[in-house]
Amino acid sequence: DEDQGQMGSMSALMAMGLFEVTGASLPRPVYDITSPVFDAVTIQLHPDYYRGGTFRIVTHDNSAEHMYIQRAALDGRRQDNAWFHHDRLAAGGTLELWMGPEPNKDWGVAELPPSRSSEAPAVLYADRDTVRVDSGETGSLTLAARNLTSRPVAAAWHADTPAGIEVRPARGRLTAPGDDTAEQDLTLRVAAGTPQGLHRIAISGQAADGTELPDAIAY
C-alpha cells in the first residue's frame, strides 16, 4: 500500500532536501532541512495556491562524499535553523546549502523546530543519519542526549532494531549536564545473510521524571 501516493511524495521531498516531521499538522507547518540528492531543484508553485512563482534549492560542493550541511542561506540571509516555515516556501525564493565531508554540529541548533509533543528536557540524536554496514560486518554510531535545560538530565534509552541488525549495548543511561550534551558510542552488527537495503534503527528514551524523549533515528 503506497498510502495514496504519500510515500512517493515524501521520497521526492527528501530527495530535494526537505522533510516534514509533523505531517503538516501544525497551525503553521514547517519543513526540516536535510541533505539533497540533487545539485539544484526548482519547484514550480501553482499560482492558484501559491503566490511565489518558484522556490529553488541550490547546493554548493554537493557530492556523495560531501553529504553534510555546513551552512545555509534563505533568500541571501543566514539560515541558522535546520527548519523554516511553509509560508516561506509558498512566497518563493532560494534556499542555498553549502555541503562538506563532516557534520557541522554547530549549524542548525540555534532554535529547535516547533513540536506538538509535551516539552522534553532533552533530545536524543545520532551523530549520523545513515551508516553503511555490509552483511556480516560491524559499524559504529554515537548516541547523544542534548540537554535543553540548565539542570542535569538523566535519560534511560533502548534501541529498537529490525531482524538481522543488533545494537550493542542495546540499552543504557545518559546523564547530560545543564545546557550540555552526553554521548555514548554504539556498535552495530549486521548478521550474515541480512538483505541489503535501508533498515531503520530507532532509539527511544525517557527522562527520570517519566517524560518521553524524541527518538533518535538512523538507517
Keywords:
219 residues, mainly beta, 5-stranded mixed beta sheet, 4-stranded antiparallel beta sheet, 2 helices, globular
Q: Could you characterize the architecture of this molecule?
A:
With 219 residues, this protein is mainly beta. The chain is built from 2 helices and 16 strands. It has helices at residues 6-15, 86-90, and strands at residues 18-19, 30-33, 40-44, 54-60, 68-74, 77-78, 83-85, 93-100, 122-126, 138-147, 153-160, 165-168, 171-176, 181-190, 201-207, 212-218. The strands form 4 sheets. It has a 5-stranded mixed sheet. Strands 9-10-14-12 form a 4-stranded antiparallel sheet, with no helix packed on it. A 4-stranded antiparallel sheet has the order 13-11-15-16, with no helix packed on it. Strand 5 (68-74) and strand 6 (77-78) form a beta hairpin. The radius of gyration is 19 Å and the shape is globular. The relative contact order is 0.14. The mean pLDDT is 91.
Tally the helices: 2
Q: Note the gap between the termini.
A: 22 Å
Give helix % range. under 10%
Tell me the number of strands.
Answer: 16
List the helices and strands and how they pair.
Blueprint (H helix, E strand, L loop, with lengths): L5 H10 L2 E2 L10 E4 L6 E5 L9 E7 L7 E7 L2 E2 L4 E3 H5 L2 E8 L21 E5 L11 E10 L5 E8 L4 E4 L2 E6 L4 E10 L10 E7 L4 E7 L1
Parallel strand pairs: 4-8
Antiparallel strand pairs: 1-2, 2-7, 3-4, 5-6, 5-8, 9-10, 10-14, 11-13, 11-15, 12-14, 15-16
